[in-house]
Request: fold
Amino acid sequence: MDAYSETNNSINNSTTTAHQDFSTTVASGSSSSTSQAVASTTPSRYENQKRRDWNTFCQYLRNHHPPLFISQCSGANVLEFLCYLDQFGKTKVHTMICPFYGHPNPPAPCPCPLRQAWGSLDALIGRLRVAYEENGGAPEVNPFGARAVKLYLREIRDLQSKARGISYEKKKRKRVASQQDI
Reply:
């Protein structure tokens, strides 16, 4: 098991235990008010994922040589973190010399590396950007919003879309039909 999974599993286990303890405490109270209290205090899936991502990034900084504090973190450290996460990726990204480069469904296996998918990295950076500010960081110095990080994500998106032979197109907003169109 890799370090990223171990960190997430230990966080999940402690969260489950805490949630079970909370549930048994709440279950002993009145049933009508407790169901409302549980519904309002249970964090959403997004909040849980954001917390796990934040904890993983903080763990990465603690294990960094030399260890870093979040206040010392820069866009370069965020890029190192994203490269570190690539080793746990599950998306095959064909290199330019691969015979399957540009094929969305290659007919045979190849030795190209597995990487983190662009969409996963983009969502991760979005959650970490919010978590940074929620944990007292100033928006002006948010390392997850650094220009270098944005450029890196754009480069990864373009590289992965070309490697798969599927061009990336930004989703267009659907127009709401007005009364005149009907």
Summary: Residues 1-35 have pLDDT under 50 and may be disordered. The chain has six helices and two strands. The first strand starts at residue 91 and ends at 92.
